Amino acid sequence: MENRIHPELREALKKLKEVRYTRERLSEIRRWDIEVFANLRASTPQEPSVLTYERFIPGPENAPELRVKIYEPIEKNELLPAVLMIHGGGYVGGTVEHLDVRSENLVTISNCIVVSVDYRVAPEYPFPAALEDCYATLVWLSGNAAKLGVDPSRVAVFGSSAGGGLTIALSMLARDRGGPAIAFQVPIYPMIDDTCGTRSCKEVTDARVWNYSNNLFCWDMYIGADRSDVSYYAAPSRAVDFSELPPAYVCVGELDPFRDETIDYVTKLSRHGVPVEFHLYSGCFHAHQEIVPTAEISKRTKMEYYLAVKNALHGTL
């Protein structure tokens, strides 16, 4: 890892602690994860032009209500596009607070309204709970577009890691169920291959970053150890039909376990006639732009997907 890492990330990598996922440590890891993003929030001034508030919305049938956080410009003079934000966390952790800063940046840079969903996570709630929560949020967002000041024809879905996997799965589910319409998808280094069998997945073993063993553990928690009958809504790499999906912006780091499955997804989209822009960041590990936000490569990574959303939803793509 040290020999291949991007120079701007090298010193930060040396300071990272090893994290090994197990059932026994899951609660501890979740607490640590919350602390990391709380520190990021504390070190980043809140954007004064953005209004943030919470709502509780109907969940899937026979499921609890869902907490969502909504971020919008304080001054709105027209219907705006919306982004349904889906946090990461390996399908076993994460909260909407993880993406406070990203959501605020999207509002200010991409001129949109963000709805971020606090979906249920495994192993307490295995597949399909998270996906159905995301779909219920999409249905609510579309059905309440006028009240929210949203143009329902310009709704994007955006997620990273497990959130990226849910972004793709939700795009497929909405297509197969006949809506609501998704205008643009932004799966950032998506977690979509439950086999964990690609070269990139197997070669990243450094416990300071997202790696093969943690990835395998989280898939076991999300869909179980038996892989004999896995739905492509759980692991979108298993899908056959990639047609009629929303146009996409996708990116991944060269040293991310998800590199190969991401490239495979991009290739399949292109072969099925779906417009897609793809960025591969040399020497970058999983979630580098979140872990080392001050590095120039991290700033460029973030700005490129913010601008992609702006261009797609405001008709300049």
Helix tally equals 11
Q: In which order are the strands of the major sheet placed?
A: 1-2-4-3-5-6-7-8
CA radius of gyration: 18 Å
Label the CATH architecture: 3-Layer(aba) Sandwich
- Count the E strands: 8
> What fraction strand?
15-25%
As for the CATH topology, it is: Rossmann fold
SSE blueprint:
Elements: H1 10-15, H2 26-43, E1 50-57, E2 66-73, E3 80-86, H3 100-110, E4 113-117, H4 129-143, H5 145-148, E5 150-160, H6 162-176, E6 184-188, H7 199-203, H8 212-223, E7 248-253, H9 259-271, E8 276-281, H10 288-291, H11 296-313
Parallel strand pairs: 3-4, 3-5, 5-6, 6-7, 7-8
Antiparallel strand pairs: 1-2, 2-4
Helix pairs in contact: 3-11, 4-6
General description of the model:
This protein has 317 residues and is α/β, with parallel strands linked by helices. It is built from 11 helices and 8 strands. It has helices at 10-15, 26-43, 100-110, 129-143, 145-148, 162-176, 199-203, 212-223, 259-271, 288-291, 296-313, and strands spanning 50-57, 66-73, 80-86, 113-117, 150-160, 184-188, 248-253, 276-281. The longest helix is centred in the first third of the chain and has 18 residues, at 26-43. The radius of gyration is 18 Å and the shape is globular.
